[in-house]
Write a structure and sequence with these properties.
alpha/beta
Length: 274
């Protein structure tokens, strides 16, 4: 590839395109990160220049196939089993157990699930408590490659970190020196698919949920987009439904339709009554 430099102008063009497509924001301080990933990807595609590749994405990619490839090269699918476990335990033992005891069949959506370790952890917790068959679990990500890996039931060794609950892992995961395999019952309990959080129609098409788990993704969006996505997620909640975000994320300044609640030192956002 003849032209490998990422000028400030090219950086701005690509950063705007990526943000427009999936919400991921690259600021000026992220220049080197984006430049490294972008130039490696463009070289793999055999393009003559970054500008030519940009024009291809913008004007000669009607089905978004190449944009999808670029996103897969840029997105960080950093997740693992039992990550930030206490809020998930509170969610299962509290909100979901209450709805199951009341005779309901709650719907749970794990949004931006990457390679699926989070919803699979939820399935393990539900099964451990005898509730797996009473809850519907949907998990989505913008990356088709990540979802393909999630559907495979095969995960890398880094998906199981030090300090994990040995009883749960031993019961539901088969760990070898090379990979982690999820037991068939847990794998079959989660329905995986692709969805883009910045696409109103795609989110609406998923229907309504009793619980939405969207953790450690909003930190990569600009504030104005976070506000729009949070309101979109709030509209996807059933009356009295709950949104769960990452432990380092707060939605208090973004939403007027969600009320913050604390349970067992974990914070949840409940949809306010109309």
């Amino acid at each position: 590839m003849a032209d490998v430099s990422v000028s400030p102008q090219l950086f701005a063009l690509f950063a705007a395109l990526v943000e427009e497509t999936c919400g991921l924001h690259y600021g000026p301080r992220d220049h080197d990160i984006l430049a490294a990933k972008l130039t490696a990807h463009v070289a793999d595609q055999g393009e003559d220049s970054l500008l030519d590749y940009y024009y291809r994405l913008r004007y000669d990619d009607p089905d978004g196939v190449e944009r999808t490839r670029l996103l897969d090269a840029l997105l960080v699918h950093e997740t693992y089993f039992f990550r930030e476990l206490p809020p998930l335990q509170q969610l299962v033992d509290g909100y979901l157990a209450e709805r199951v005891r009341a005779g309901g069949r709650p719907r749970v959506w794990s949004a931006a699930c990457a390679t699926g370790e989070e919803p699979l952890t939820l399935a393990m917790l539900l099964d451990q408590r005898g509730m797996l068959d009473a809850v519907d679990l949907l998990a989505t990500d913008v990356s088709a490659n990540a979802i393909a890996r999630a559907r495979s039931g095969k995960h890398g060794r880094r998906s199981l970190r030090d300090g994990h609950p040995a009883e749960l892992a031993g019961r539901y995961l088969d760990a070898t020196a090379r990979e982690i395999t999820v037991t068939p019952r847990i794998q079959a309990a989660v329905r995986f698919g692709t969805a883009n959080l910045v696409d109103d129609a795609a989110v609406t098409a998923l229907g309504r949920f009793d619980v939405i788990v969207c953790r450690n993704v909003l930190i990569y969006f600009r504030d104005e987009l976070v506000a729009r996505v949070v309101e979109r997620l709030a509209r996807s909640l059933e009356a009295d439904g709950v949104l769960v975000v990452g432990v380092s994320e707060s939605l208090l300044r973004y939403s007027t339709t969600l009320a913050c609640e604390e349970r067992g030192h974990s914070f949840f956002y409940r949809r306010r009554a109309a």
